[in-house]
Amino acid sequence: MDIQAISGNLAEIEADALLVYLIEGGQLVNNGKAVDDALKGAISEVIEGGDFTAKSGETLVIYTRGAIPAKRVIVVGLGEEDKITLEIVRRTAASGLQKARDLKLKHVAGGAVGVNSGRFETAESAQAMTEGALLGLYQYHGQKSSVTPEDVPEKFDLVTVNVDAASTGIATGKAFAVGTSLTRKLINLPPNILTPAYLAEQAEAMSKEVGLSIKILEKAQMQALKMGALLGVAQGSDYPPHFIVMEHNADKKNELDTVVLVGKGVTFDTGGYSLKTSVGMTSMKADMSGGAAVIGAMRTIAELNPNVHVVGLVPAADNMVSGNAYRPQEVLTASNGKTIEIISTDAEERLLLADALVYAQRYNPAAVVDIATLTGSMIIALGHTTTGFYSNDDAISAKLSNAGDTTNEFVWRLPMYEEYSEALKSDTADTKNSGGAAGRAGGAGVAAHFLSHFVDYNWAHIDMAGMIDNDGKNPYQPKHSAKGYGSRLLTEFVRQWVE
């Protein structure tokens, strides 16, 4: 869908539908009153009749019968006035454009929520409107043999006084939405298509499109780097591992701060010999969600071009059961020489991250953030609304928290008390990869301590296990698709790093 900023009187614009917005309690905003007046109070009449309460996301369609150039008005509820945030703006745009799609409308126009009242700057409202509209219209048709649904609406005009500021916000919103849509697409693909090699191919194609530097390390190169932890996980699969390295501003790495983003890329996780249940395995094509978030974020970062050197690392492998698969009680050696006793082959994700975190050291980073679907403990702790993170640096933590609040991809810092590491003590190696039964309590903290063995810089670890599930209640996170969590969060973190 094409989104552009235009000036003009909303009531005089010719379109298939106009979006107008109503605060719960009856107040029309963003020129909605002018549209209502032109319709001789048709909107007010419905409101006064109690047929529309304007709860957030609620929609109402009114036909104009030639009173104005637009054929319809879609009224979208904003909810309570004191609860209108940029997140509500995203959801409002998504709800309005989804209603237009239901009606198969091609051209929609509407104002930028909260600008006329001074609640939001034009650019930030336009960005949120664009994110909500594009992400709300995202559809994953998958490998169905039926005809792909029509891509409507085709055009959304954002009506504003400040066209330049709105255009800036639209461009930013598009970049965020495109990166998140790429993240969703990768997660949604089935594992027989999204192999480690295919994930690397997609990252390479994206990087060439937007001007990122990229290299893909294959098995022999990983062996030369002594990535024994990653290779130990990968050895059970017929699909060889790939290690994806993307760079923004690679030519300026000696003059700019370096931020490294690391995403887990387990393209399918059976649990290995510590086999998952049949139910537990049904969502495991999404076990590469952290890697997809990094790939999506790198696309957005390339578009927005922040003045910082950003490296995206995605170690990609399958965790399978075979005669070659690694087993409990084996001892693997990571690329920093640390030895790891395998307690659970279903704690494979941290083994991939271990070698990736060691690899990040070569960039002398100012900050490293890894993101992974790591532990069920995080879901028990925080559910599916907020995800937890651990960090050894207050500045990184503050920026991550701010980025989460800005994007509504919430994160909450959890403690890394030394006591959590007791469960990782091994009689045969430097550390265990899991606390086993002794580490079930506080398992997310135990996992974070494991990763700290491979870190020698300022770092944060995001455990996004609870972000796979999507109940479809958020209108710009359509049901039957991955949320795409993490792409906007990581991008905003990088933007805040240079502000």
Essential attributes:
single chain; Leucine Aminopeptidase, subunit E, domain 1; Aminopeptidase; 14 helices; elongated
Outline:
This protein has about 500 residues and is α/β, with parallel strands linked by helices. The protein is built from 14 helices and 19 strands.
Explain this structure to me?
The protein has helices at 32-38, 42-48, 86-102, 122-136, 163-188, 196-210, 219-224, 228-234, 289-304, 349-360, 376-382, 394-407, 443-452, 487-497, and strands at 2-6, 17-23, 27-29, 59-63, 72-79, 107-111, 155-159, 213-217, 242-248, 258-263, 265-269, 309-319, 331-333, 339-341, 367-372, 387-391, 411-413, 431-432, 459-463. The radius of gyration is 24 Å and the shape is elongated. The chain folds into two domains: 2-137, Leucine Aminopeptidase, subunit E, domain 1 (3-Layer(aba) Sandwich), CATH 3.40.220; 181-497, 3-Layer(aba) Sandwich (Aminopeptidase). It has 14 helices and 19 strands. Helix 9 (289-304) packs across helix 14 (487-497). With 499 residues, the chain is an alpha/beta fold. Strands 8, 9, 10, 11, 12, 15, 16, 17 and 19 form a nine-stranded mixed beta sheet that branches. Strands 1, 2, 3, 4, 5, 6 and 7 form a seven-stranded mixed beta sheet that branches. A three-stranded mixed beta sheet has the order 13-14-18. The mean pLDDT is 96.
For the biggest sheet, the summary is: 9 strands, mixed
Rounded average pLDDT: 96
CATH topology descriptor of the largest domain: Aminopeptidase
**Radius of gyration in whole Å, from Cα?**
24 Å
Q: In CATH, what is the homologous superfamily of the largest domain? A: Zn peptidases
CATH architecture of the largest domain: 3-Layer(aba) Sandwich
- Helix percent reads 25-40%
With helices defined by DSSP (H or I, 4 residues minimum), what is the helix count? 14
Question: Based on helices, strands and strand pairing, what is the structural class?
Answer: alpha/beta
Distance between the termini: 31 Å
Q: For this structure, what is the CATH class of the largest domain?
A: Alpha Beta
